[in-house]
Amino acid sequence: MNAFRKNIVSWLVYDLGNSFFVTAISGLFLGQWLILDNKLDDIWYGAGFSIATIFVLISSPFLGAWSDRIGKRMPFLKWTTIGLFIFNGLVALVAVSNIPMSQRVFVVLGLTIIVQCLYQISLIFYNSLLKEVSTEENRGKISGLGEGFGQLGWLFGSVILLPFANGAITLFGEPGRHQVFIPAFIISTLLMLPLLFWFREQSQKKEQFQKTDDCQQNSIAKKTIEGIKQLFNKNKNVGIFLVAFSLISDIVLTLTLYFAVAMDALYKINENTKVFIFAIFLICTTVFGYIFGKFGDRFGHKLILVISCFILIVITTIFFFSSSLGILYLVAILAGASGGGYFVLSRSLMIKISPQNQLGEYFGFYSTFARVASIFAPLVWGNNNFIAKRLFGFKISSCRHGDGWIFSNWDFDFIKG
Hints:
Blueprint: H1 3-24, H2 27-37, H3 42-70, H4 74-95, H5 101-128, H6 139-165, H7 181-198, H8 206-210, H9 217-231, H10 236-266, H11 271-299, H12 301-320, H13 325-353, H14 359-372, H15 377-391, H16 402-412
Helix pairs in contact: 1-6, 1-7, 2-10, 3-5, 3-9, 3-14, 3-15, 4-5, 4-7, 5-14, 6-11, 6-13, 10-13, 10-14, 10-16, 11-12, 11-13, 12-13, 12-16
């Protein structure tokens, strides 16, 4: 296998492994363990992710600009990955420890905040490496493959971790959903390691590394602030895109946190059915992410992205205002298809419209805008549900998502790409 193929394979497999542990700390397992099993209010779970988002919001543009200055992504990705190994392992150990459950849930929640920070920061450098493993002609296709492998991580994670969650397999301590973290840690670590050893980033010219003054933190911070100003001045096209991207990502990421809890409240289905529905969603995300990526290469990334967003608008509304199991299956299929297309095409369109010598910095903005609205979204969701479950019923929380859908699609119409 030549170096370029090793780069592609290790890049794809890394996302497979990364997604595996993220599945464990998602709404399907961690969210239900905290909210349903240990009776924490939704707002506690959402607040943890909001804290992680605030940290990423502050640090990601700076780190992205830093990587641009030294001309390398891999050193940053290696260190964040090592951090993930450490804190993923701590989550797994604490979850099955003898610490009293009332204290254990908060320790695990605190550790998962750190995991979320490291995971979100790692995506800055991981996404920037897309340019290393693709060409202008096949970028949508490779981005689709990357998204597909990430969704396979969610799919395999959901299926493999299910027997640990439902008590069929217990490794240490008492049975329950907290058993999923040990196998998730082991498998994700094994799958993420090849990138650290195989991936060879293209070397830069020596002159870029001899300008040590430019790599000083003050210079980087100044450049980052200037880059933010340019988003809405010189590079308005990117700024408009990121605003729209933020509004949609707010909804998608919030639903990812709470979808299992929402299915439990709205559709009254058991654990096996939840995983089956989720598997359908992920299979459709994987398959259609690749297909939408190919369509984007052929018909234009912006056009196919807008179509994906429109499908998401309709299907999300149906999800919250129905309780039919048949409708839920339809939602899983169409949400998977459109969601896969959305993330695949957003990433490839971002590369197309960004300054090519500032990809690290601009993917820092990409990560920031993906999460900026979700600082408040989980908190609003949790607060709404705290009130709504006592007064109106669970469905009231869905109403807050309508504005985001409308304005994000309006914004996409102004993007040139």
